[in-house]
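User: Thanks for the earlier help. One more: Heme exporter protein B. Can you show the sequence and predicted structure together?

Assistant: Of course, both are below.
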Amino acid sequence: MGQQESMSVRVLDPVTTSPGLWQSMIAVLRRDLRLSVRQKQDLLNPLLFFVMVVALFPLGVSPESDFLREAGAGILWVGALLATLLSLDHLFRFDYEDGTLEQMALQPQPLFVLVLAKTLAHWLVTGLPLVILTPMLGMMLFLDGNSVAVLCLTLLIGTPVLSLIGSVGAALTVGLRAGGVLLSLLVIPLYIPVLIFGTGTVMAAAGGSDVSGHLALMAAILVLALVLAPLAAAVALKISLSAS
């Protein structure tokens, strides 16, 4: 019953009723957020996975405070990366299966704008909660206050990049039955620069270095992803739809 209700929301909540581009983007964003709230497992699974990765790492490697303080930024960044990857397969799949994605592709509004709205909704329900949980988990890994603050800032800049890059991979694999594995193979290599800069910024802050250059570089990556990723995802969706 709940699944039928969520599908009806996708069909009955039209994108084209709003006359302007901005209104259409807001309509898609609100619809995706409403669907995410109704499907609570999609909200909780990435968060639980993130907490489990961070909590189990000391048990499997070493509980020493000095080691955890040194490796804490990398642990949290890898956990956030994998948690984001866990939810990417559902970014376009439900809309693809019930035909809503085809309706979006036929709208007068540019498809990349609607893709950007869906990606923003994905970040709001996945990436932002990970950032909110980070201070508590950072204290569990014995990170100092300055390192935790810088780590939260890097995740606030970096997790939207993960969602944007992931949207391209999700668009390419949306029509495949076993798309989750291929999605991971496509996206993880593209995540490596964000992971390196994110952990490197925290390590530089822990060493007392100026991190303004690191943050500026991450912000530049975010701007580049904002410009290019929705366009690439829109093209990939059209290819996937034409091949289906």
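User: Great, one quick takeaway?

Assistant: Residues 2-243 form one domain.
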